Amino acid sequence: MTEQSKIPLPPEGKARSLFERAEDLFGLEAFAAPPVPEGVAEPAVKRSSRKGPSVAAQPRPFDEVQVAPQAAVPGIEISAAELELAPIPLSGPRHAIDRARLAEQGLILPDGKVTALLEEFRIVKRQLLLSARAARRSDAASRAQRVLVCSPLPGEGKTFCATNLALAIAAEKDSEVLLVDADFAKPSILSTLGLPGGRGLMDALADPTIRAEECVIATDVPGLFVLPAGSTSNSDSEFLASGRTSEVLDRLTQGAPNRIVIFDSPPALAASPAAELAKHVGQALVVARADLTGQSALEDALTLLSACPDIKLLLNAAHFSPSGRRFGTYYGYGE
Question: What is the pLDDT of residues 67-90, one digit of tens each?
Fold first, then answer.
């Protein structure tokens, strides 16, 4: 056992620690922190701990900046009105629809009597409106308000159905409808309704200086607007496939959640624009004529329109009902 009584002790009052003695032996001055100069401001953490108003409570210039919802900062409130896009009105020239021409073609007459045709399109429009409202809750809200009316081949009644559907929706108390003639090669909506020609959708797609809403024709039927096809082009499919199409179509429903846009497109098996438009709509209504449309043609058309998430079939010119339904007679009117 070591005899510790012989270890020399430092004089009283001058005891040194082990670290101090190691410093004498190895010279640790080089590892010491540099001296702090006088007049240096205290760290921000220390300043915030002082009594008085906190830093967060003091007004700062960037407190006035509006932040988008995905980058919102807690404590900064943004009203929903500030985030909504400004509505784009359809304020084109107003023209009267030729009622006599509607009657000649067997179309629905605005403010006319209740007929079997009107009742049938009431049922069709109700299904489309319910689907549109349900789809608006998804990410594709703008597409939900667009409906493509198409047929596999010419002569199956797609313009007849698109026009009647638009007239039926225009009668809704809380909705309005924009009927777009998207059959650029053989437009017929204007002649069907007795409206004058003018610039239309193709002009807005081809010329960035033309806004589609400025080409819209207002009608004397409350809630019904028409967008002509516009100038004839040999590149209609290419214009529809361009990036400008989404921008143009979005403006047609911007700030108007109750507006339904109906596209009367070319037959799917006769022209390619129908397949391009199917990429921009939430619903497609495929018209099949009971006495004309074949199964293979219908299947091919559905394949071409498969980009649309919701495709419905409408049987046209069917004169037999297994259930014996007779719409229109209940109101005291016949066909």
Answer: 344 444 344 343 344 346 788 888
Q: What angle is formed at CA 200 by the lines to CA 194 and CA 203, rounded to 5 degrees?
A: 150
Which CATH number do you get for residue 199?
A: 3.40.50.300
| 276-315 pLDDT, tens digit each | 999 999 999 999 999 999 999 999 999 999 999 999 999 9
Residue 258 placed within a domain: yes
Q: Which two tokens stand for residue 180?
A: 């777009």
The model's pTM: 0.72
Task: For residue 262, give its domain range.
Answer: 94-331
Do the domain assignments include residue 295?
yes
E strands, the chain, where?
94-95, 146-150, 176-181, 217-219, 224-227, 259-264, 283-289, 311-316
CA–CA dist 228, 188 (Å, integer)? 9
Domain count, the chain: 1
